[in-house]
Amino acid sequence: MSTGVLVIGGAGTFGRRLVRGLIATTDLDVVIAGREIERVTAFADEMRAGRRANRARARALRVDANTVAPDQLRRSGTFVVVDAAGPFQGGDYRLTKAVIAAGLHYIDLADARDFVAGFPHLDPAARKAGVVALTGASSTPALSNAALDRLTAGWRGIDTVEIAISPGNRAPRGLAVVRSILSYTGRPVRVFHEGHWVSRPGWGMTTRRTMRGLGKRWISLCDAPDLDIVPQRFGVRRSAVFRAGLELSILHLGLLAASLPVRLGLLPSLAPFSRLFRNAADLFTPFGTDCGGMVVTATGLAADGEPIRSTWTLVAEAGDGPFIPTLPALAAIRALADGRLNRTGAIVCAGLLDFDAIEREFAPYRITSHIETERPNR
After folding, report:
1. What confidence category does residue 56 fall into, taking pLDDT thresholds of 50, 70 and 90?
2. What are the residues whose beta carbons fall under 8 Å from the beta carbon of 69, sequence distance 6 or more?
3. For 254-259, what is the mean pLDDT?
4. Coil, helix or strand at residue 276
5. Among 18-27, 49-58, 166-175, which stretch is predicted with the lowest mean pLDDT?
6. 124: CB partners within 8 A, 6+ apart
7. Which residues of 256-291 are buried (b: 16+ CB within 10 A; e: fewer)?
8. Across residues 30-44, what is the average pLDDT?
């Protein structure tokens, strides 16, 4: 079997971090792919010139995910294709279908609710081809669900779940990430709340949380895959919400104010203004920190039937936060390469990767995690 990994968007915000992780921690060949051959070639040259040049078997390949044919993917000499570029919001499955038709494994970093929800329709084709097609191998739903599996193991029931992500203000802001947030800001988002499915405005349900190691930060409702997956997988009885936040209050609350025209029906979406919003946010880059984090909290009944509340907190320091979305994908690639992940089909990455397998990928970075459990009746 080939030992090559083809990373689409390999010179982008998250793709380049996945490539660095592959080169630093595996012996796998890496093909850095994208539409701009000059950009991917420059990054491949940088990787080959690094301290690990004897292992940095990186090369560049021009690939347009919108038009790539199975034959081109097959000729790449790789066994798995990773889509680290998207866009996934409003995206289609052309690349995924081409990868499956080429007889290669597929992994993506999708965090788009509709894209992830529709992914299982590719299952018959993936099974027939004998390949693994994995979506959502990122912070959500892969890492969030792995943390929930760890927190709630053995519980009799789960009442509430809250998942929150807050990057540091100095973290890179790719245009695709900004467009993703703006695509649902102010628009109706379906969420399981107080025992019922209700509609709430995106970037609404705003609250302020104290996040261990980060202090107080604003967080608001995001349209993420976990809003569908968590209530179903865990049988949540009351509420399950996914929120995210911007570290600086002026940016977070400013976006909340900007959502009003969409809420009132005066604008269909803020997405067309993505570049404007990113440029405005970039003016504040000198402020805030480069520390980000993630919090998963669950309440319910423990194995003994008594109330329990458990919280998992992750903190990334010194700019290492942007590596987090790539680490579940890195764990999945490692599992494919050594034969531990051998289930075929098109699969949503929720409950597939063990928490320990993802946590081991934290080691090279300034990333720490902590679990705290409270028993109110004790």
Report:
1. low
2. 98
3. 97
4. helix
5. 49-58
6. none
7. bebbeebbeeebebbbeebeebbeebeebeeebbbb
8. 94
**Percentage with pLDDT > 70 across the chain:** 98
Return the residue matching tokens 């987090």: 324
**Residue type at position 330:** L
Which residue ranges form the domains of the chain, and what is each CATH number? 4-139+322-362 (3.40.50.720), 143-320+366-374 (3.30.360.10)
**Tokens in use for 190?**
């379906």
Residue at 376: amino acid letter: P
Rounded (5°) CA angle 72-116-343:
70
Structure tokens that stand for 3 in this block? 């030992």
Residues in contact with 247: Cβ distance below 8 Å, sequence separation at least 6, in sequence order: 166, 167, 168, 169, 217, 288, 289, 292
pTM of the predicted model as reported, rounded to 2 decimal places? 0.94
Nearest one of 234, 226, 100, 225 to 160, comparing CA atoms? 234
How many Cα atoms sit within 13 Å of 291 on the Cβ side?
14
Collapsed DSSP state (helix, strand, coil) of residue 167: coil
Token representation of residue 249: 């209050």
- Taking the C-alpha atoms of residue 327 and residue 96, their distance in angstroms, rounded to an integer, is 20
Tokens of 84: 């680290």
Alpha carbons 324 and 171: distance in angstroms, whole number: 12
